[in-house]
Amino acid sequence: MKEEPPTQRTPPASPTPSLSLQPPREDSDPPALWIFGYGSLVWRPDFAYSNSRVGFVRGYSRRFWQGDTFHRGSDKMPGRVVTLLEDHEGCTWGVAYEVRGEQISEALKYLDVREAVLGGYDTKVVTFYPQDAPDQPLRALAYVATPQNPGYLGPAPEEDIATQILACSGRSGHNLEYLLRLADFIRLCGPQAQDEHLEAIVDAVGALLPCFCPSGQTLAMA
Ligand SMILES: N[C@@H](CCC(=O)N[C@@H](CS)C(=O)NCC(=O)O)C(=O)O
After folding, report:
1. pLDDT digit string, tens, across residues 55-85
2. Ligand 1 center from residue 29 Cα (angstroms)
3. How many whole angstroms from 101 Cα to the centroid of ligand 1?
4. Is residue 58 within a helix (H) or strand (E), and if so which, with residue range?
5. Under the phi-then-psi rule, with left for phi > 0, alpha for psi from -120 to 50, and beta for the rest, what region is 216?
6. Residues with CB under 6 A from ligand 1
7. Max Cα separation, the chain?
């Protein structure tokens, strides 16, 4: 399902940087583009793609520092979603999706609405290292929310981020679902994908939950 923007919330993203499409492998092969997801794109790309690979990007850390007033929050109660922070020591795990031929324009058109218009993200070219072939890195397009975008919330104690996540939901669902689906993915990637920031927020949510679910209800994940 593709979200339709109720109104233009942020200026259209700057045109996608001239990411040279991967040359066709054979003359008959269509051009290809890799798109790197590290937040909701990990479990809900919602665009057609030909191939996907789990892996990581170096030089970035994932942070719940972007506000979201559409998908996981509202204007009155913005949720928190992730962006990439430039961090020389950082390593962020996610999923890269290969789009080929006509899939390219369809994916970019959809993501421009979902990520840029509705989410305040901009595009950035990153180097993606597939988990199964880290010696064969790929250039990929990533959507990154910079501090200059109007929805940027920036750093906060993990306990405060956890409180905000527990209190927010939007058109795509509860902010807690967003956190837990991402934590599930990182857990499935194994210990090399450890994300201390994400873990600290999940731990803080666990510590707060009795306050939010006094009857001891368990969290039902759809
Ligand atoms: N750009 C990041 C983050 C994308 C992201 O999480 N964007 C949010 C807010 S704009 C979104 O699309 N949410 C849809 C959802 O929460 O299901 C990614 O590559 O996954």
Report:
1. 999 999 999 999 999 999 999 999 999 999 9
2. 30
3. 24
4. strand 51-68
5. left
6. 37-42, 44, 68, 71-72, 81-82, 114-115, 118-119, 121, 143, 172, 178
7. 63
* Confidence check: pLDDT of 42 > 90: yes
Q: Is residue 79 part of a domain?
A: yes
Nearest-CA neighbor of 143 among 37, 48, 4? Answer: 37
Question: Residue written as tokens 């040279």?
Answer: 20
126 forms bridges with which residues in the sheet?
140
Query: How many domains are contained in the chain?
Result: 1
Q: Which of 62, 18, 16, 3 is nearest to 37 (CA)?
A: 62
**Looking at this predicted complex, what is its ipTM?**
0.96
Range of the domain at 175: 32-212
Answer whether residue 221 is part of any domain.
Answer: no
The answer to whether the beta carbons of residues 13 and 122 sit under 8 Å apart is yes
> Active-site positions?
115
- pLDDT of 12 strictly over 50: no
Q: What is the pTM of this model?
A: 0.85
